[in-house]
Design a protein that fits this description.
Length: about 110
């Protein structure tokens, strides 16, 4: 798996992490014996229980898909993954302001 990840130019650490999490989530079941339903279940778990960002969920999805396609040589073209998508976090923008000095300078 690591050789395929490096060849494609992906982050070895990140892809290995998400594939490991996926396998552990399904009680160490071999990915060869899992399919579309297990991927949907894991991605939904990330969105609902782990409250991850959409980018993180997408990264996990692509890591698992890469494992299936590149390493296990599973045809995933017919899979229509319908997992609950993570929601974008609403946050207020941070406004940076110069600190004002109480000192007066005269020239």
């Amino acid at each position: 798996m690591k050789d395929k990840i490096i060849f494609k130019g992906y982050s070895k650490k990140t892809y290995a992490y998400w594939n490991r999490e996926y396998i552990l989530f399904h009680d160490k079941k071999h990915p060869k014996h899992m399919g579309k339903e297990e991927i949907e279940e894991f991605l939904t778990h990330l969105a609902v229980n782990k409250n991850v960002s959409p980018i993180t969920q997408s990264q996990a999805f692509h890591a698992i898909l890469s494992l299936c396609k590149e390493v296990l040589v599973i045809d995933t073209s017919k899979w229509n993954i319908q997992a609950l998508r993570a929601k974008r976090k609403d946050h207020l923008p941070v406004v940076l302001q110069k600190k004002r000095s109480n000192k007066s300078y005269f020239i």
